[in-house]
Specification:
Chain lengths: 345, 345
């Protein structure tokens, strides 16, 4: 079973997946990519439903059975999960070290039966179905009291870590709240306690005011290059209205999110020649009920604000970034926003 | 001038180097590598001293002049610095955003005149001279009251971010303490306040006790794969004796460090077929004098412990890691240590 281990010095949890057990000879010159879309057989193509673990949910045409053709979006467990779904979260210590059994969910959201159709080129109504699948899975998994957090993410292109070319996203549910989310939560909390305002709402207001980093806005959503972008052409996408969790998004607003996502993905594709990218959804953590406190997070509904962080993978991270956590970004976000606004789509 | 910008939500500083100003067309399929050792001309080769900025220090043969041949190790400013050395650190705010002028030092330590000789294959006495250069530069730069921190790091191989093949390390002095170092400092501080012991010393004791993650030890130094390794074959190298700053290392112990470094670099090279890697030295931050307090860091000499983190670059970081700060390591550190211990060098 995989283990969650905590480094006592940096307070960082790591998943050590002993099952995968990669030995020195497993790390070739192109070590992390299995097939990478070159192989002719794709387990995510329509008709190959038997080659994936059994589907959990799918957006299906009427009268089609699970694990058969006829789906638009399909969610299955990851065949090579980083964390395992069966078991209890046992917590143990060993001297100064802490560990936990590697319990969690690891799922794949197959975004379309079409092997070559990516978000930038999909119909908005199809992107809406992908977002529907994200929401359904979060709503379902957050009922599992073993899990503290559900992270939805997408790797596009081998340079961004995608091991299969067929369009897909992933989801990992973990028994801990991941470090970056924790830092955001703590900082948003302390801002709220001081000012009685959401820091994300303040940021949206300031960005809409100056406009120099804005890339897209519609009635419900905005997208801009953040002031302290770590990476060239980094983008954040947020709901204009204050909302702590992605899963709270009303169905009637989801189409607007699909429109926003498609728009900025097309802009990235045109501006940067179809770059590899990652995106992650940062939503509020699962609430942890405590005796006499129905919601451990208390003011969470006021102080956190879900958002999507989109990172084109254009630069390599070197020793300085790894060692310091201080990023060097060679493209000012104001410049990046200007290119993205002005590109013809 | 480059800018240091702070993201108010994650409390993360970023260097936005507007001068380099990379536009969309600058990001090709292999964007970050200039030449990467394929070009015939190398500015770091002996005889080409005129092609680098003027040397700051060098370990030289007697009666040789600066910026001429006759050196063993040579330090110069980086020709394309991420931060600039001239100017004051002006701090400004803009709504919820904070920024600082991008003042700092960015230097290159050319490790040898030999274009193809890397640490694994150098004489120990030569590695000693490289370590001497690191120390000299830290001791000199920490006198500059504008700087809070000096980070020495090395990128080996293009996959690790090296832009020139000639063996070299780098150093960046910054007006802020980088985020990861800050987290380590805070955690070591709170451990010391609770237990009156250094957390690193405790970790060394525990690792020597179990032995399962040990790779190398001599009279003064140890190297092991950390319990919560983020990456396959990650290694930490620490002085056995408690010591806060790398620059405090007595000259007579430096040769033992050279021996330790050479040993583990040879083991990495043999075990993993000469992998790309990064290393960084985490030392105590420059002390910041305050009125009535000669050393702002107070107990720093007791609670921090310098070390070198070595990261072979064998796996790609994907969306999950970027989005969460939670790493998935497919090789247990106990396994990695076993391979490294048993390889013939």
């Amino acid at each position: 079973m995989p283990e969650l281990r905590k480094d006592p010095i940096s307070d960082r949890w790591v998943v050590v997946s002993t099952e995968r057990g990669r030995r020195p000879s497993d790390f070739g010159s192109s070590p992390t990519v299995e097939g990478a879309g070159e192989s002719k057989f794709c387990p995510f193509d329509e008709g190959n439903e038997g080659k994936t673990p059994k589907e959990i949910i799918a957006w299906r045409k009427p009268n089609t059975a699970p694990d058969t053709p006829g789906w638009d979006v399909r969610v299955t467990p990851n065949k090579f999960p980083a964390l395992v779904i069966e078991g209890e979260v046992n917590r143990t210590g060993m001297g100064i070290f802490d560990m936990m059994s590697g319990i969690g969910a690891h799922e794949v959201i197959i975004e379309t039966p079409n092997h070559n159709l990516n978000i930038a080129d999909m119909e908005e109504s199809h992107i809406d179905k992908i977002l529907w699948a994200y929401k359904q899975r979060i709503v379902d998994l957050e009922k599992d009291k073993r899990f503290r957090y559900i992270l939805v993410f997408k790797n596009y292109g081998t340079a961004a870590g995608a091991s299969l070319a067929h369009p897909h996203s992933q989801l990992i549910a973990t028994p801990i709240t991941p470090r970056y989310v924790k830092l955001e939560l703590a900082s948003a909390r302390s801002y709220f306690l001081e000012k009685e305002r959401c820091i994300f709402c303040d940021m949206i207001r300031q960005e809409l005011g100056t406009g120099e980093r804005m890339v897209y806005e519609n009635e419900y959503f905005v997208a801009f290059t953040p002031f302290a972008s770590r990476f060239p052409f980094e983008l954040w996408l947020l709901p204009r209205r204050h909302e702590a969790g992605f899963q709270e998004l009303p169905d009637e607003e989801r189409m607007q999110l699909a429109r926003c996502l498609k728009d900025i993905m097309m802009r990235l594709k045109k501006t940067l020649n179809d770059p590899p990218y990652n995106y992650v959804i940062h939503t509020a953590p699962n609430s942890v009920p405590r005796p006499g406190k129905p919601d451990y997070w208390g003011t969470i509904n006021y102080d956190f604000h879900w958002h999507i962080e989109i990172i084109p993978r254009l630069t390599k991270q070197a020793g300085f970034e790894w060692g310091s956590g201080l990023y060097i970004n060679p493209t000012a976000p104001e410049e990046a926003a200007k290119y993205l606004r002005e590109v013809k789509i």
